[in-house]
Amino acid sequence: MKTYNFDESYIADVPGEKEITAKDVQVFYGDNHAIFNANLKFLRNKVTSLIGASGSGKSTFLRCLNRMNDRIATVKGEIDYQGTNINSKNVNVYEVRKQIGMVFQRPNPFAKSIRENMTFALKENGIKSKDKLEERIESSLKEAALWDEVKDELDKSALALSGGQQQRLCIARAIAMRPNILLLDEPCSALDPISTLKIEETVVRLKENYTIIIVTHNMGQATRISDYTAFFHLGHVIEYDATKNIFENPSMQATSDYISGDFG
Ligand SMILES: Nc1ncnc2c1ncn2[C@@H]1O[C@H](COP(=O)(O)OP(=O)(O)OP(=O)(O)O)[C@@H](O)[C@H]1O
Q1: Which keywords does this chain's UniProt record carry (predicted)?
Q2: pTM of this prediction?
């Protein structure tokens, strides 16, 4: 078993077609150095889990991938997406977020109808045709496995849905924009086991059309749904590999300690 060298930079890479790559990414909250030289390549149409103890930097790193840290932290390094460094100042952040959608820990639907939740961003982006909007609502709600439960009550308030339904609505709302990448920041942490299972099934189906990167504290969830897993520790990416290897045969002592519950 190897010990991680905190002075060296680890290139976290696995074979396959890349969708988005972090190069020497560092994040600072004032004096707090939260992410140290993360070099991590994510594969297209795969689910990748980010795991690690509380405070290890998973959410901070995830937010770098669609510029969600802009107002709260200093992010150095490059995020390469389709040949562009999207961490560059002159990149249009709204365009980035159209292609790299995000779903948060707590479901956050707008206090509007289900239909309005689905159409708001589409209308803002110039999609006005009623047929096109209806088509997007239906196809996205189907992809998020919510359509059958809400198709007869699209004008009902989104806040009247259960927590799990609200989270699937947030996923549907994100994919209505037809992004390439979906970032999920502990999307099940506020949900009961049955709702969690539904989201997990949804995520596994969604990878057919999207690249998915998910922060999770739930080891079972990481093993059930992700193809690859990156282990974060003290702001460093310590190990990155096929999920099976991370959980059954990790190379690094710190990974082994974490997954066996020795710390964190
Ligand atoms: N908005 C913020 N302002 C200042 N510091 C922050 C902020 N968000 C995170 N941090 C700090 O950055 C470090 C990494 O935190 P982060 O939330 O990314 O870790 P995490 O692994 O996602 O933790 P958790 O699993 O508890 O969500 C911590 O030291 C944390 O205190």
Answers
A1: ATP-binding, Cell membrane, Membrane, Nucleotide-binding, Phosphate transport, Translocase, Transport
A2: 0.96
